[in-house]
Amino acid sequence: MLLLGVADVKASRKFYEQHGASVAKSFGGTYAEFSTGPVTLALYKRAGLAKQVGLSDATGSGSHRLAVHADGEFTDPDGYIWSAAAR
User: Per residue in 36-82, pLDDT tens?
Assistant: First the structure.
């Protein structure tokens, strides 16, 4: 599972739906999970995810770039950059 912490679950869910992802589960504005094959993509409210993993600051400082086997590049509402991995 790839779980992304996002500021607005509903807006991010809509974004991924517009990019072809099908929602498998959704719990209002706190969590959304997509039918994405062997690796499940899920969205969780950033502050809630930070609390779950024991972080006091939900802003994060890690990478916001994901490389996948796909065509093109796009950036989601939370600044996660999806780019095509070298094949």
Answer: 888 889 999 988 888 888 877 777 666 666 666 666 788 888 888 88
CATH number at residue 67: 3.10.180.10
How far apart, in whole angstroms, are the C-alpha atoms of residue 45 and residue 52?
11
| Inter-residue contact 66 to 60 (CB < 8 Å) | no
The string of DSSP codes covering 35-71 is E-SSS-EEEEEHHHHHHHTT-S-SS--S--EEEESSS
- Partner residues linked to 75 by β-bridges: 81
Q: How far apart are CA 5 and CA 46, in angstroms?
A: 4
Range of the domain at 40: 2-84
Give how many domains the chain has, as a whole number: 1
